[in-house]
Design goal:
The chain is of the alpha/beta class and 143 residues long. It has a single domain, classed as 2,3-Dihydroxybiphenyl 1,2-Dioxygenase, domain 1 (Roll), CATH 3.10.180.10. The chain is built from three helices and eight strands. A four-stranded mixed sheet has the order 1-4-3-2, with helices on one face. Strands 5-8-7-6 form a four-stranded mixed sheet. Strand 2 and strand 3 form a beta hairpin.
Length: 143
Amino acid sequence: MAEHLHHVHVFAQDLERTVNWWQRMLGARVFFDGQFGGARNVFLKVGTGRLHLYDQPARDSGRGPVHHVGIRTDDLAGLVARMQAQGQAFRSPIREFGSWRYIMCEAPDQVLLELFEIESSRMPAGAAAFFADETDGPRQPTA
């Protein structure tokens, strides 16, 4: 059996607002909305990744141990422009580091997002293999 990171589960102060934001800003699709583990949960897919939302406020006022959620895109400038047109604020302009560019923003419920784009053809083989996903086709990790 191979293990893999399946999802991030976050608390939602206002579940309807949070689901709507993920749908509008990042094209999330709802796969489940109902009772699960004693609370209403909504299970979303954002591209090939998964996000689960609890219908309850966070138990503390901080972010807990999670710093941010990374969202990969193949058109960062276009995504940022689309989100800004819908009123999303960003902390800074897009930052670029060779084959990597990113920008940070806050989703509902103080969830910090890193939106990023990579050029895997300009990365060392190990890094390119690490970032490979289903949209890139098969790739073997390096030692």
